[in-house]
Write a structure and sequence with these properties.
Residues 43-69 are annotated as: Disordered. By secondary structure, the protein is mainly beta. The chain is 11% helix and 36% strand. It has helices at residues 141-152, 219-232; strands at residues 2-7, 14-19, 27-29, 32-34, 84-92, 96-104, 108-110, 117-121, 128-132, 162-169, 172-179, 192-200, 206-214, 234-238. The model is unreliable at 1-63 (pLDDT under 50).
């Protein structure tokens, strides 16, 4: 069954089309992959209210020394240089989701095993967008965002998460943050910029999670990539046994 989701202009305007049965709760933040839809936060306790009248309970600040941050001074990704084309891939979770989306031309697809997400990476390997489907649609975007913030509050201090912004409307939640990947993933401690978005289907619950990752100087282009994906994504589900 297909559904069309309208969203107000927050970080961009557009239309998201979702075709899916049953739904999900998968999420990953940048390089962090967990079971529920994604978000961003800081290593310090956060007092974020994603919905009016809701105040989260802060968790203790993780212990451990901070790391020296390295800034990659590569030229910024320029949104005006990006050209987009439609790509289709399949992910598997609670259900099998066939996902179609517009992605910058020349960005290559990689998937983990099992293929719970699809990640499109630019030729430099420094920017990518990750898209997740195949999960059960059970909660609104604001709840998915807050769940991830709670989880990120427990991350080691040496990942140096810093929440930059968070936005919630009726069927849409977005966070932006910076962080340093763990030493085994980035020995140099290169600072990353991430925008994560959860979008609801007609039920009002989260059906797609996407995160656009790169360098701080790429933030405008990363948002452009995320907006194009959000405006074009289609998810069509079938049973895993089908």
């Amino acid at each position: 069954m297909a559904g069309t989701v309208s969203r107000r202009a927050v970080l961009g305007a557009g239309l998201l089309t979702l075709a899916g049965v049953g739904g999900a709760g998968g999420y990953g933040v940048g390089l962090f992959l967990t079971k529920e839809p994604s978000l961003a936060g800081t290593a310090a306790p956060l007092a974020v209210s994603p919905t009016p009248g809701t105040t989260p309970t802060p968790t203790p600040t993780p212990t451990g020394p901070p790391r020296k941050v390295t800034y990659d001074d590569s030229p910024a990704l320029d949104a005006d240089d990006l050209r987009y084309k439609s790509q289709t891939f399949e992910v598997k979770g609670v259900v099998r989701s066939r996902v179609s989306v517009r992605i910058p031309s020349g960005w290559s697809l990689t998937q983990p095993d099992p293929p719970k997400t699809g990640r499109f990476t630019d030729p430099t390997g420094k920017r990518w967008i990750r898209i997740e489907g195949g999960f059960t649609i059970t909660r609104p975007p604001a709840a998915s965002m807050q769940a991830r913030i709670t989880e990120l509050n427990r991350l080691p201090a040496n990942q140096m998460l810093h929440l930059i912004s968070h936005t919630v409307d009726e069927r849409y939640a977005t966070i932006a943050y910076t962080y340093v990947p763990p030493p085994e993933q980035s020995p140099e401690g290169v600072l990353r910029y991430v925008i994560v978005r959860w979008v609801a289907d007609d039920s009002g619950n989260c059906a797609v999670e996407m995160s656009s990752t790169g360098l701080p100087q790429d933030k405008d282009a990363l948002l452009d990539v995320l907006d194009h994906a959000t405006d074009s994504v289609q998810r069509r589900d079938t049973p895993l046994s089908g």
